[in-house]
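Researcher: We're teaching a course module on how sequence relates to structure. For the next exercise, students receive a sequence and then see the predicted structure as tokens, so they can try to spot secondary structure elements on their own. Here is the exercise chain.
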Amino acid sequence: MVKIGNIQLPDFPLLLAPMEDVSDPPFRAVCKDNGADLMYTEFISSEGLIRDAIKSRKKLDIFDYERPVGIQIFGGDEESLALAAKIVEVTNPDLLDINFGCPVKKVALKGAGAGVLKDIDLMVRLTSAVVRATSLPVTVKTRLGWDDKTRNIEEVAERLQDVGIKALAIHGRTRTQMYKGEADWTLIGKVKNNPRIQIPIFGNGDID
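Model: And here is the predicted structure for the students to work with:
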């Protein structure tokens, strides 16, 4: 049995990754019917939630038949992410996920998503701010590192666990790889097998 906070999942759970413009409620319903054990919304901008943007608010829609379901947020500012976490908590999801993995320029080059991989200290501060702001289980999705010279996911996993995350999902590529080449599951395995790591570790990338 895999546990994320109070959420119980099978030994080898199947998770639906949060995907922009893909994992909306109808798509999630289809995935639930086909065996998804845990699902996430599309990622939501913390700044958009704070500004009460219609597009961002609409992504908060979740339904009981989806449970367990998580809401994913992204951003690069501690205060904004903490405020967004409080907004999310009101909608009563089962967990809250932080995106530190999106590689697209409009996100990463603005210091959010995978852009945070350039500054691990910042990633830890952002995560800690969210954990402190909510009573929901907090999880993180990220990548192996910014580039091949900074594949620091082993350090990242330990430090994020230390500030209170309840699970970590790792895409087996760096930000500079985007979605090219093959995902490297070797490092994901090292994180999983690290005796210091006590939280669930989920692999992502090239799953057929």
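Model: If you want an answer key for the exercise: The chain has a mean pLDDT of 92. DSSP finds eight helices and ten strands in the chain.
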